[in-house]
Design a protein that fits this description.
150 residues, alpha+beta, 4-stranded antiparallel sheet, 5 helices, 14% strand, globular
């Protein structure tokens, strides 16, 4: 049995961050929310590729088109929850990327969309990949995460 991993450290644009686990309640809701948002995407993949779907057969442009259908409210919720489990390593210790009131807890991120999106992807991948293991989607989720570092 492997030990439970409660965080991972990542480097993004020369800055060091720690990504922690969601609470069980937030994680459960995120799985439900993301599954409902992504179900149409994977349904169309299965219908286009048959029962054995292969990541190489996926229509990335179609997936991105479906993702653009996420409402701003849903996106804000997902990103907010993801950023609340991210912390920057500073000389004084770990500082939250996003405070409970929604303000940024560290400097120079408010206008850094690339770092914010990368941290969002790391947080979602770290927290949700284990849910998809064995489903054929873990490779896709893992590939998105590994391709987004720095």
């Amino acid at each position: 049995m492997q030990p439970k991993v409660s965080y991972k450290d990542v480097e993004v644009n020369g800055r060091k961050f720690r990504v922690k686990k969601f609470t069980a309640r937030v994680g459960s809701f995120m799985i439900v929310k993301l599954t409902s948002l992504l179900a149409p995407i994977f349904s169309s993949i299965r219908s286009n590729t048959g029962d054995d779907f292969n990541v190489e057969d996926m229509d990335i442009a179609g997936i991105l088109g479906q993702l653009s259908n996420i409402s701003e409210k849903d996106f804000d919720y997902i990103q907010e929850q993801a950023l609340k489990v991210c912390y920057e390593h500073l000389p004084s210790g770990l500082a939250p990327v996003l405070n409970e009131n929604g303000t940024f807890g560290v400097l120079d991120l408010e206008e850094d969309a690339a770092t914010i999106m990368t941290l969002t992807i790391h947080a979602l991948g770290f927290n949700l990949t284990s849910f998809f293991q064995g489903s054929g989607l873990s490779g896709l989720v893992g590939g998105l995460i590994s391709s987004r570092q720095d």
